[in-house]
Amino acid sequence: MSVVVTxxxxxxxxxxxxxxxxxxxxxxxxxxxxxxxxPGLTVLTADLLSDDDLVRAALEDAAVVYHLAxxxxxxxxxxxxxxxxxxxxxxxxxxxxATVPRSVPVLVASSSxxxxxxxxxxxxxxxxxxxxxxxxxxxxxxxxxLCAERLARGGRTTVIRPFTVAGEGQxxxxxxxxxxxxxxxxxxxxxxxxxxxxxxxTDVRQAARAxxxxxxxxxQGAVNVGxxxxxxxxxxxxxxxxxxxxxxxxxxxxxxxxxxxxxLADVRRLRSLIGWSPETDLRGLVRRQAAAAHPLVEAT
Length: 300
Hints:
Blueprint: E1 3-6, H1 11-22, E2 27-31, E3 41-45, H2 53-61, E4 64-67, H3 81-99, E5 106-109, H4 135-152, E6 157-162, E7 165-166, H5 175-184, E8 189-192, E9 198-199, E10 202-203, H6 204-217, E11 221-225, E12 231-232, H7 233-244, E13 250-253, H8 268-274, H9 282-293, H10 295-299
Parallel strand pairs: 1-2, 1-4, 2-3, 4-5, 5-6, 6-11, 7-10, 8-13
Antiparallel strand pairs: 9-12
Helix pairs in contact: 1-6, 3-4, 5-7, 7-9
Domain NAD-dependent epimerase/dehydratase: 3-226
Protein name: Nucleoside-diphosphate-sugar epimerase
Region (Disordered): 115-135
């Protein structure tokens, strides 16, 4: 039997496919975006809401399903973003959860944004009340409710809450990608709020490994995937400057309401389930991300 990854052409999805294939899994990757063939990967280019027969068969016959597909972006202000979030985060998630047999594990990617940030510097725990701020976080909270309903009906369901995943292939709208691009062009780094704000930055390779380990452990319910350690925006900016061997300047702007002051994962449940939690070498991670974005330049 095969393992299915939806959103397999996306940032985390690509790394998860590589992780699973390297472990000897036969992977079916489903995504609307075309993706090149890779060893161990069968590609299905389709929309999850298109009633595609091959997609339905893959979901019904899978050994494990990792549902990573969705509409990303906390800061997206596009005219139709509310519609896209409902369609791609809620309705597509509902279709996957309804199609996969209850006996088959489904691991669903939610977001740390459902917490609304760390409160008073305390790490966010899976049992904390959810306080979603903004449309993206609310759509993920709605998806989590669907997951809870499947779990209550006896369906094997795990909700993954990743914290600020970074590394090679990171989406261009995320802070480190934006800062690397700005620093290369000699532009100031745009900072929202303050350089003292913190993020629990998680290496994409370790996030993917944690997801695979959670599936192997038979985990159920919500699980944070983070490091439990906050990295300041100042430290992240310094890592960008070091990776590109350049000086950086800043433009500080007020942070919108959807931007939490800090994010920090309580990783005790993750450790109890898989025996470890991610640790981020920030400078090494940013060097990797920079090199992957411009491999020819970095190689010279």
